Each structure stands twice: as C-alpha cells, then as structure tokens.
C-alpha cells in the first residue's frame, strides 16, 4: 500500500530499497550487516512463487515438534551417567575390562544414536504428512510469500522444512551431548535432569528477558536454540539479526548451525574425559 503507483512495475527494486531501510533501522552500527543483507536479498530468486494452501502455521507446528523431541531426548539422556553414580553400580562397571573410556564412549554414542534416530523419524513423518495433506506443489512456495516479503533467505517452503530438520537434528545432538556432559558431572539424576531441562528452556527465557545484542549472541550459541520455541532457527531465518564482531557480520542461522557443529564433538570429548576422571 505504500508503494508509489508509478513504481509498481519495478516492485522488486522497491523491495530491495525496503531491505536497505530496514537494515539501517535494525543494524544502524553495522554497515557490513547492511551490505550483506542487501546482497542476500538480491540473490533471492524472483519473481516469487506461491501455491495456495500452506501457511506459516505448518512450520510453527514443525518447530513445536522439534522442541518436544528435544525434551524427550534430553530426558532420556540425563540419567546416562548420573544414575550409575547414584546407585553405586558405576563402582563395579568401571572396574571391568572395557570400563572407563570404552564404556563412556559406548554410552555416549548410544544416547546420540537414539536421539538422532528419534528426531529423524519424527521430522520425516511430519514433513511427509504435511506435504501430502497440503499438496507437494505447496513446498515450492517462496518463503517470502508465507512470511515477510523481505525475508532474506533464497529458499522455498520445502527447503525451509529440510533446513529446519537438519538444523534441528544438529541442535538435538548438541543438546544431548551437553546433557551427557552434565550427567557425567552430577551424582544425582534429579540434578542432571533439572540442569539439562533448564538449558533447554533457557533460549526462550533469554529471548523474552535479555535485551539487545547479548540476547542474540546467547540464543545463537546455546545448544538448544535451534529448536527452541521463541529463538529457533526457523524464526532466525525470517529475521534480520546478525552477529557483529571485529568488522564481520554473521547471519544468526549460520551462527546457530556453526555453533552446534562445534558443540557436538566438544561436549562429547568433555563427557568422556569427565567420566574417566570421575571413575579414576
């Protein structure tokens, strides 16, 4: 409604001007972020494609599904080590031939495998059911047509579903790895479970209470952020947030995925190391 009728035939150029104006408001102190956002939008395939039927609610439900699976996996993983500490069975297990490192790695990989399988199956079933009900053509709709017309991502709904499934899987594995680390440090299952659940809901609380850039940084780096209710990668894709450091600007979805990739092996190594030290 705000477009000058004389420029209606130049609609997409007007959208690029709108991106430039939005970024000057969202990132006034970061010219690098402003330039990156404009360049990203210029690479978006145009004209946009739309097939009626699917809306943003279907993606919200996928996000809720991811969060519920995250809680399910964390609850399963939390007692992995702490339950043996609490019952005293670890004193026997660590004295066996394959105790310590091998036992710690076996528990670690078993928990990660179960979590990965659970999330993959749930994500695949959800996508198959959703696209079958709404029609597979709806997956070709540009994300700009179901979210904001100035969304930066050059993807359609189907690609967004796969992106969230991949990023959600990484987030679940990173969260489970962190939960296993907590379990290897705690002597009580209640303590390890409470701490793990607190970190699962932390991104949601932080996004609602912590102001400014600090909230963006924390929500981008915490393992559970990829599938949280308020700060998931789904909403980061449709936002204009960038992490700015030393003159560089990183779009928050990239930061979330990169953080999870680093956190999975990091917490896995720390878990085995902590378990071996506890058993020493």
What can you tell me about this protein's structure?
The structure is a single chain. 68% of the residues lie in helices and 3% in strands. It has eleven helices and two strands. It has a two-stranded antiparallel sheet. Strand 1 (242-245) and strand 2 (248-251) form a beta hairpin. It is elongated. The model has no long low-confidence stretch (mean pLDDT 87).
Summary of the model, kept short:
The protein has 11 helices and 2 strands, in the order ααααααααααββα.
Which segments are poorly predicted (pLDDT under 50) over 5 or more consecutive residues? none
The number of helical elements comes to: 11
Percentage of residues in DSSP E strands: under 5%
Give me the Rg, rounded: 22 Å
Task: Specify the overall morphology.
Answer: elongated
Q: Which secondary-structure class do the elements indicate?
A: mainly alpha
Distance between the termini: 70 Å
Walk across the major sheet and give the strand order. 1-2
- H/E topology pattern: HHHHHHHHHHEEH
Largest sheet: 2 strands, antiparallel
Number of distinct beta strands = 2
Helix proportion range: 55-70%
**Averaged pLDDT, please?**
87
């Amino acid at each position: 409604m705000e477009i000058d009728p004389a420029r209606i035939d130049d609609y997409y150029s007007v959208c690029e001007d709108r991106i430039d104006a939005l970024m000057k408001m969202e990132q006034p102190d970061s010219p690098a972020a402003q330039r990156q956002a404009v360049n990203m939008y210029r690479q978006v395939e145009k004209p946009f494609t739309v097939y009626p039927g699917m809306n943003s609610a279907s993606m919200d439900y996928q996000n809720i599904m991811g969060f519920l699976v995250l809680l399910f996996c964390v609850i399963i993983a939390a007692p992995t080590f702490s339950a043996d500490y609490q019952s005293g069975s670890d004193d026997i297990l660590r004295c066996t031939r394959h105790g310590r490192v091998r036992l710690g790695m076996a528990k670690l990989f078993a928990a990660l495998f179960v979590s990965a399988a659970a999330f993959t199956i749930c994500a695949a079933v959800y996508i198959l059911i959703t696209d079958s009900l709404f029609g597979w053509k709806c997956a070709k709709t540009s994300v700009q047509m179901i979210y904001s017309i100035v969304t930066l991502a050059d993807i359609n709904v189907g690609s967004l579903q796969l992106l969230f499934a991949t990023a959600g899987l990484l987030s679940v594995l990173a969260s489970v790895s962190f939960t296993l680390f907590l379990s290897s440090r705690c002597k009580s299952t209640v303590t390890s479970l409470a701490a793990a659940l607190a970190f699962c809901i932390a991104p949601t609380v932080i996004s609602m209470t912590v102001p400014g850039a600090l909230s963006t940084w924390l929500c981008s780096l915490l393992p559970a952020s990829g599938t949280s209710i308020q700060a998931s990668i789904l909403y980061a894709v449709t936002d204009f947030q960038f992490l700015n450091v030393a003159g560089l600007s990183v779009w928050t979805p990239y930061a979330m995925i990169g953080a999870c990739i680093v956190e999975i092996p990091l917490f896995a190594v720390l878990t085995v190391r902590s378990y071996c030290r506890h058993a020493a």
